[in-house]
Amino acid sequence: MRTVFFGSSRFSVAPLRALRESLSCVVTKKAKPKGRGYLLSDNEVKEEALRLGLPLFEITSFKDETARQIAELRPDLLVVASFGLIIPRWFLDAPSVGAVNVHPSLLPRYRGPAPMQWAIWNGEKETGITFITMSERMDAGNIIYQERVAVDPDEDAHGLSERLSLRVAELLPNTVKQIELRGLEEGRVQKEEEATYTPMITKELGKIDWGSGATEIDRQVKALVEWPTAYTTLDGKLLKIFETRVDGPGGENIDGGLVVDAGREGIRVSTSSGLVTLKEVQFEGRKKMSGYQFSMGYRGLVGRKLL
After folding, report:
1. How far is 43 from 46, CA to CA, in rounded Å?
2. Is the dihedral of CA 120, 122, 125, 126 positive or negative?
3. Which of 132, 140, 202, 280 is the most exposed place for a label (fewest CB within 10 A)?
4. What is the pLDDT of residues 155-212, one digit of tens each?
5. Contact 63, 86 (CB under 8 A)
6. Between 10-19 and 44-52, two packed helices, what is the crossing angle to 10 degrees?
7. Four-residue CA torsion sign, 107, 110, 111, 116
8. How many Cα atoms sit within 13 Å of 53 on the Cβ side?
9. pLDDT in tens, 127-137
10. How many whole angstroms from its chain centre is CA 63?
11. 32: which DSSP letter?
């Protein structure tokens, strides 16, 4: 069976590796120039496909001639895991068997581009993995497999993504094998009335509102740890925050964003409800470091306001 794998993020790498023996080729989003030098940076799927010696196609859109060339390979099955582009109907009709999409949520909840980040930010106690048959509508295909996964309250988006990616890698080879033996089952229709949608993550979402509560800010930091990273300003300079801890009561009736203490546990900051401890930070122009290391090198930190 000619199977084509579509993926563009770190989440895609473990599933790609797991399916390597059964793949005809790999398709990934072409890198966009970034940084001051506008240099191209290969994504991890491309790097892994080249390392494994798999044929690789890069596309920016399904209007590319390359997309036509992939369709002309007459694939039997498409497997899509965090690809980043909507696959149009004409391309979904190309494979003889069909197309399967991997989505890291309990569909129909958390459709869209950022299910893991929003599950953490919303304080969900569980999420999941869902395999669906693909349709033109985003994440709306029939469910062919689903399992629930608990979310650790101390887990950030990076850790959750790694864990779900490895679980998908365990499940996919047998799924593809069963499809080859029995065909692609029709699956269970999603209940549209239960559908929820996740907004795109933007850089602006990283700005911390210190008028929020400690729990809300802690979830924001965990959700955005990979990108864009939660941030604030200190004395007019950018301070990125990579790790926090809710530090119980004590922030009430104090201006949000006030540094009330700093020590070996980190930098304690007031919020509208409780204190949050900054465990790992990166100040503008400096390397990432623990909150304690930063506080030791920043004179007069206690009593300053984060904005």
Report:
1. 6
2. negative
3. 202
4. 999 999 999 999 999 999 999 999 999 999 999 999 999 999 999 999 999 999 999 9
5. no
6. 20
7. negative
8. 1
9. 999 999 999 89
10. 26
11. P
Token look-up 């119980």 returns 248
Dihedral class, residue 273 (left if φ above 0, else alpha if ψ from -120 to 50, else beta): beta
pLDDT of residue 136: 87
Element (H, E) at 102: strand 98-103
- Residue 229, both tokens: 């990273």
Q: What's the whole-model pTM score?
A: 0.93
Kindly write down the DSSP assignment for every residue of 139-198, as one continuous string. T-SPEEEEEEEEPPTT--HHHHHHHHHHHHHHHHHHHHHHHHHH-----BPP-GGG--BP
> For the chain, how long is the longest CA-to-CA vector?
68
Structural domains of the chain in order of their starting residue, each with its CATH number:
3-194 (3.40.50.170), 203-297 (3.10.25.10)
CB count within 10 Å of CB 247 equals: 22
**What number of other Cβ atoms are within 10 A of residue 56's Cβ?**
15
Other Cβ atoms less than 10 A from the Cβ of 300: the count is 8
The H-or-E segment that residue 276 falls in is strand 275-283
Percentages helix, strand, coil for the chain, rounded to the nearest 5? 30, 30, 40
Given a cut of 50, whether residue 41 has pLDDT beyond it is no
Dist CA 12 CA 85 (whole Å): 14
The 10 Å Cβ neighbour count of residue 158 is 14
Q: How confident is the model at residue 92 (pLDDT cuts 50, 70, 90)?
A: very high
